[in-house]
Amino acid sequence: MLLSGVLLAFSFEPMGFSFCGWVALVPLMWCCAGGASRRAARLGWLTGVVFFLASLYWLRHVSVLGVIGLALYCALYFIPFAVFVSLRRDGWRSTQGGLNVLWMTGAAIVWAASEYLRAIVATGFPWNFLGVSQYQELAVIQMAEWGGVYLISALIVFVNAAVTITLLQYRHGMRRTYRVHLELMVAIVLVALAWSFGMKRLLTTEPAHSAPVRIAMIQPNIPEVGNWERVDPEVIYDRLEKWTEKAQDIPDLDLIIWPETAIPDFIRYNRRGAEWLRAVLSGGPPILSGCMDLVTRKDGTEAYYNASMLFDSFGDLLRTYYKQHLVIFGEYIPFDGKIAWIDALTPVDSSFTPGRAATLFTIPEDDRPFSVLICFEDSLPYLARRAALKGATWLVNQTNDSWFDPDCGSAQHLANSVFRCIETRLPMVRCANTGISCSIDTRGRVTQTLAPRTEGYQIVEPVPVDPARTATLYVRFGDVFAQACLTGSVALFILLWIKKRNATHA
């Protein structure tokens, strides 16, 4: 139990030992195989607690109680997998290869279904899915364009199950020779096929149908932006202005991007901020800035938004995107005003309002639309897919990871972005206040990186995709694979329950 949790944590940043993911679940399966379901549920949950506490420790900068509560909650999604393993009465030691492969498939299905549930229940927390541990193994993860990151997770669990079966058979003397193991051979063949497809994708160069977009990303490195009262606004203004002016000297620049919540006021209502912005722009390239926004509703109440705004060369607002998926305890408080003690879990004073849809931006005199994902929205597969369906030809992620640096939160954040690019085959530009500002191509390759916790700017040149291209299977069908796994998991548990009841009454 402890070993599985540690191996899982080691497969993610900051360790980044991706190979650990392929065997991390073996100790858990070994302990649960053929045992009591209640014991397996406890072991599965404890494994999840160890993993999430070890991999999410960087959230302590926001709330220590929040980290503990989140780990205890996310660990619940390990229980179905552990219980499923325990329900096999032969203890996973059968030498019937075909039957073993079916059970291996069932384990992969149950794991993928549990990850999907974690992504959608209670607004969802799709962080550190097992497949994400392989974000640097580009050849293996290219098939995410078919079934999303869930398909990669399922493959890894399938391999874990094959290793477990083989070890258990040797442990109990059911294999005394080194003849071919069907279970391992099937797993190896599947990994080889995934690798072969991925290498073909990586080695195939797509013809560029248009010129790249020339962008300057500004990384001001303001500590804890969002807590404006802790930072002198003039420091923020000065850093943005300094690096923007330097970037404006770059020839043929199409766009300047500032990170999430870069402007320290409500720019639409602050005269000083608006005048400053016009002076900074001074007829140069347009600016896409993260900022806060305030809207007064018809009933007189006010709604606060985490927004991205595109300003033209003269400071006029062209278009706005409101963040759709808010971070629980970071941007909104569940049961706000109804449960007093819940305020202790978060530094947030009041809740933001979520946006309702993806927004298409276009740079003046450029008809290639792009969409924005703010903060951790790049960890949600369906949001990138929504942007692709709407017609985006490239993506922007504006984020502020200053809450977590210099810990590994920024690297884990980047890992999620890689999958969004592969799933949609859209390039992405990531602009962070601090974190990892970079460019990611349609194959998930990370380039043009600006180091975390440094001030400066980085020129990136993503090539927008052809809007007439054939969309990936994931963009066309979404989470059908994960949803099929969920349906299959329910069916499996029902069949196993019926079988157990009939055996009891026999």
Describe this structure as you would to a colleague.
The chain has 506 residues and is of the alpha/beta class. It has 2 domains: 2-205 and 480-505, no CATH class; 215-293 and 306-334 and 352-465, 4-Layer Sandwich (Nitrilase/N-carbamoyl-D-aminoacid amidohydrolase). The chain has 16 helices and 11 strands.
Total helical elements? 16
Number of domains: 2
Strand tally is 11
CA-based gyration radius: 24 Å
* Structural class estimated from helices and strands: alpha/beta
Shape: elongated
Order of helices and strands: HHHHHHHHHHEHEHEEEEHEHEEEEHH
Largest sheet features: 6 strands, mixed
Strand order of the largest sheet: 5-4-3-2-1-11
Euclidean distance between termini CA atoms? 34 Å
Note the beta-strand portion: 5-15%
Fraction of residues in H or I helices: 40-55%
Structure described in brief:
This protein is 42% helix and 13% strand. The chain has 16 helices and 11 strands. The strands form 2 sheets. It has a 6-stranded mixed sheet, with helices on one face. A 5-stranded mixed sheet has the order 6-7-8-9-10, covered by helices on one side.
Write the layout of secondary structure elements.
Layout: H1 2-10, H2 26-32, H3 37-55, H4 64-74, H5 79-86, H6 97-120, H7 138-141, H8 144-147, H9 149-171, H10 182-203, E1 215-219, H11 233-247, E2 255-257, H12 271-281, E3 287-296, E4 302-311, E5 317-322, E6 370-374, H13 381-390, E7 394-399, H14 409-424, E8 428-432, E9 437-440, E10 446-450, E11 456-460, H15 473-477, H16 480-505
Parallel strand pairs: 1-2, 2-3, 6-7, 7-8
Antiparallel strand pairs: 1-11, 3-4, 4-5, 8-9, 9-10
